[in-house]
Amino acid sequence: MNWKTWLIHHGRQLGTLAGLLALGLALTLSSPYFLTVSNLLTVLEQVSINAIVAVGMTVVIITAGIDLSVGSILALSGVVMATVLQQQLPVPIALLVGLGVGVACGMVNGLLITLGRLPPFIATLGMMSVARGGALLFTEGRPVSGFSDGFRALAGSQVWVIPMPTVIMLGVYVLAHFLLTRTRFGLYAYAMGGNEQATHLSGINVRLNKTLVYGLSGLTSAIAAVILTARLNSAQPTAGMTYELDAIAATVIGGASLMGGQGTLVGTLIGALLMGVLRNGLNLLEVSSFLQQVIIGGVIIVAVLVDMALKTDKK
Amino acid sequence: MEPPPLLRMRGIGKSYPGVRALDAVDFDLEAGEVHVLLGENGAGKSTLMKVLSGACRPDAGTIAIEGVTRPIGTPQQARMLGISTIYQEFNLIPHLSVSANIVLGREPLLGGFLLDRRAMRRQAETVLRDLGVSIDPRALVSTLGVAEQQMVEVAKALSLDARILIMDEPTSALTGTEIRTLFDLVRRLRQRGVGIVYISHRMEEIYEIGDRVTVLRDGRWVATRRLTEVSTRDLIRYMADRELQEHFPRAQVEPGPPVLEVRNLSTRTKLRGISFQLRQGEILGVAGLLGSGRTEMAQALFGVAPRESGEILVDGQARRIRSPRAAIRAGIGFLPEDRRLLGLVLPLSIKRNVSLPNTDRVYPRGLLHRGQERQLADACVTGLRVKTPHTDQATGNLSGGNQQKVVLGKWLARAPRILIFDEPTRGIDVGAKEEIYRLMNRLTQQGVGILMISSELPEVLGMSDRILVMREGRISGEFNRDQATPALVLQAALGTKA
Question: What is the ipTM of this complex?
């Protein structure tokens, strides 16, 4: 691949990156606190949860699906893991149980979509309510709090100066990027989203692979639950409300198409950073939280409008 | 002086890139006449009717209604002029009532915005009664049978004061008694002075219901005759006679032992007891009209359409083919008719598309092997001479011929025993066509057996070693290359005796 085709393939991400840098420049000029090591590290830590949830969302959206249940799965796997932790069981076992709950919920989504032939919107809308209700039932509506230092280190410690959540986030991105670009599973994800029938006719087990895609989305929600629980030293059954919207926003700003077949994790990471930097900057500039919502919504819309205008230009 | 005809089309021409769909076609329709339009698949019947109904704009020619020249640019204009089409697939809304469907777009209103349900029902009842059909206007369209839905379509057309009614293969989905009801209806319409353009391939029907017939061939007008004065044999000659202009470079290949044997293949929907053999190095052409079951047969062989009964043997061994996966494992590759919809994942690159059925090689242990990926993609691009700057090009940006080559490349990497081509050269320009034919030659020289489904009679005759003809889900004829003539194949496809 020469540099020209590289540019065509990555033009969309470069555009978002340019937007992110422009935003950073504007904030640097308007606030003395923005471009400081500690502030930037704070932004990186703050975006890590949304960014991790957005990994699963990106893969789902690449297959032309949607997952509305990520926030509820996050809450359910968080409270289950927290309860196991309080039984004085070793941390790795609690982590495995928590991640297992996430994967299981995601796989149920996948089975409803593949075997049950439900539209992804409906299947995950149902799971959104079922998992949320499950988390509330499981905890009788109360948060589960107080964990060992070892567990809390998953959010509170640093590697050199980098906060642990950021390290975990980067690890998840590297692994998932590898999964999407270098494995058979990744190829199938793009192929299913681009043209499911042609993929089936190429001899690929679409049902299995699609189910796995939703399982992956459940997994990343559960990883985010680990960080959130460790950071708050508490698992809330009401955690993760509206996280699905942030994850979809990061994915779409990052260039994925809701029609499927397109999207990259590099783009999604930039999208999540863009949203995080924007929130941070608006806080630094003391913009009211009400106005912040309006601005963030506007940014999402503008990002997609620009994207569509560029795409129609090419044709 | 004689009054001008209801409809007069003169010198109608229409070209698509690489195809001359209509070339100076004339067509007249009198009031109270059933005028049959006859021709092979792709002869230009549908395009001519699309021009008349405003669905496509002609490049040349004029249309006059009762002697007045009218430009028809849009379906709305056509409808205003009283031209209505009854398509093979109905344009009714299944979850609305019969009356709502009939008045859709012209709903009677109370006070400017409330639907006047009673008036809707009255209007529907009136037009249904005029037609002499008893359908409850309150019934949901989805609860009606095919024939009744067709009646509703006709009623809708008449409620628009249609004077010219185009019926495209109206009997293809009907049973015997339903056909009788339809014909009664057509006769009543004729008495009311409606002019009907009737497209059908069924010879018996044509003679029963038609007054005149116009035959098209390769987008040109061939003949217009009174049906009382023309024999079936003449009609077939009009449809089939042509000089073979294109060059078909079929190479001589000595066929080997059978590579594919199909015994008594039936599906629930269409196929009835299909049996044939395909030998190594042979091109077996499959001809037949649209809807004769050719594509269903390909799908059944490739594990897409569920099989009801029958056996499939590859190299003498019975194979259970229940999914494309199993078919691929048995050594079968499928190049579907609609490449963009079924053959390729358009947003993905050539490289990726070629990898799809070959992930066992490109992704050993699930991980990408870039060398293998490049090698397969390069083999496809250089071996098949795909015109592209690089293998990272999205397949959606390629021309039809190059897309077809990439679909072929997907399968060639698997060294298939059998390739099924469904309309191998549809939408492909002339130069690339010949390249595809040469590739087919090369494959047969390597011992691959090719099943070639095609609506292009010259292609079937020019490239096949043997020809199967299908009609209504069965094999209605089989010819060797040297016996086959256009007329024989067409007769078998139409189910008539000469």
Answer: 0.79
When CB atoms are compared, the residue of A5, A185, A195 closest to B344 is A195
The fold of the B7-240 domain, in CATH, is: Rossmann fold (3.40.50)
User: What would be the CATH architecture of the domain defined by B258-494?
Assistant: 3-Layer(aba) Sandwich (3.40)
| Residue A280 in domain | yes
B347 and A184 within 8 Å at the Cβ level: the answer is no
Cβ contact B366–A184 (<8 Å): yes
Give the DSSP letter string of B271-333: ---EEEEEETT-EEEEEE-TTSSHHHHHHHHTTSSPEEEEEEEETTEE----SHHHHHHTTEE
Convert the pLDDT of each residue in B298-316 to its tens digit: 999 999 888 888 999 999 9
In a domain, A37, yes or no: no
Do domains B7-240 and B258-494 share one topology? The answer is yes
Q: Give the start-to-end residue ranges of the domains of chain B.
A: 7-240, 258-494
Per the CB < 8 A criterion, the answer to whether B292 and B472 are in contact is yes
What are the CA-CA distances from residue B242 to residues A113, B194, B222, B238 (Å)? Answer: 53, 35, 11, 9
- The whole model's pTM is what? 0.78
Could you tell me which residues are beta bridge partners of residue B242? none
Instruction: Answer whether A201 sits within 8 Å of B392, measured CB to CB.
Output: no
Q: What is the pLDDT of residues A215-265, one digit of tens each?
A: 999 999 999 999 999 999 999 999 999 999 999 999 999 988 888 888 999
CB B409 within 8 A of CB B386: yes
Closest CA to A296 of A313, A271, A314, A315: A271
